[in-house]
Amino acid sequence: MGFYLLFNIAFLIILGMFIFNIIMEIKQWSYNNKQPVLDIRCRVVSKRTNFTKSSGHTDANGIHHSGSSNTMYYVTFEFESTDRMELKVSGKEFGMIAEGDIGVLKFQGTRYLDFKRDVK
User: Fold this and answer.
1) What pTM does this model have?
2) Are 60 and 81 in contact (CB under 8 A)?
3) Starting from the edge strand earliest in sequence, which strands make up the sheet with 84-89, in order?
4) 10-56: per-residue pLDDT in tens?
5) pLDDT tens digits, one per residue of 66-80
6) Which residues contact 51 (CB under 8 A, 6 or more apart)?
7) What was the pLDDT predicted at 52?
């Protein structure tokens, strides 16, 4: 009896965390949609990646299934006011932007839209 109670509590906690994350994503999406689209001159000061991987599992037949991996890309922009903002970008954008680039960042709230590098 105790195992089933513990299992149900763990299940409800995990379900609650999942629902909480969905609600937070919807709130962030809604917030971004209400913000103006801004074009501001800036400089790229850093780039980073966040790599996550699950280890996979072995099924009842002894067959190993590999885990999944996910890479998220972030770029930090510094404005002329020296304020900085880190935004999540696609892998393609990440590859096209270099540290030290100067140009115009287009964003809406915390949503990256575009970066137009100055042509030298």
Assistant:
1) 0.75
2) no
3) 84-89, 69-79, 37-53, 102-108, 111-117
4) 999 999 999 999 999 999 999 999 999 999 999 999 999 999 887 66
5) 767 889 999 999 999
6) 69, 70, 71
7) 85
Quick one: which of 95, 114, 96, 97 has its CA closest to 105?
114
Per the CB < 8 A criterion, the answer to whether 118 and 97 are in contact is no
Rounded Cα distance, 15 and 17, in Å:
5
CA distance 49 to 56: 22
Residue 37 identity: V
What is the rounded CA–CA span in Å between residue 8 and residue 6? 5
Q: What is the pLDDT of residue 75?
A: 98
Residue 57's pLDDT band (boundaries 50, 70, 90)? low
Return the HEC string of 20-86.
Answer: HHHHHHHHHHHHHHHCCEEEEEEEEEEEEEEEEECCCEECCCCCEECCCEEEEEEEEEEECCCCEEE
